[in-house]
Sequence to fold (176 residues):
Amino acid sequence: MKSRKGMILLDALLALLLLSALAAGIFPLAGAWMAAVRQGMIRTKMEETGLFAMDFMVEKIRNNRRPMAAGGIRDSRYDYTAVTESGQDGTYRFFVDREKLKIRLYNGLIQPVTGEYTGPEELAFLPGKETLFRQEEAGPLRISFILHHQMSRTDREYETSVIPYADFYQKGKTYE
Fold:
């Protein structure tokens, strides 16, 4: 009977040793998998935020009711004209404030386009190459910005160009 108790104890210790070895091999893999999942979630959030902000700005600037000034735009603010609730033309402004893209409405109210909190943001919206908006002579308006994830120190750059329909169709000029 005593030898049998010893064998059961030995079997239990051997099983515990095998489980410990298996756990030691799996835990680093599980940790790496969790880190990859976390990075994937960060990148997804950055992509969604960046594409939303870019699409929103392009759509509003493209539908600008007034032609752009001929060049010289190099700023982190941009004014455009759109129809208000009352049917009149109103001036709206994109600008960067406290690492967020914001829009000032025609009535003076300010709304965030990016950002979730009133304090420091997890995703910082920063002007890109030189400034957020720039235009060379009579060319298209270039939009460039960087989304910076504060905790992981990951950056994602976005850049595009847009021409308002008023400029493209030369609104107000006689067709020849």
Observations:
- The first strand starts at residue 74 and ends at 75.
- Helices lie at 2-62, 165-168.
- Strands lie at 74-75, 77-83, 89-97, 100-104, 110-112, 123-127, 133-135, 141-149, 154-162.
- The CA atoms of residues 53 and 118 lie 18 Å apart.
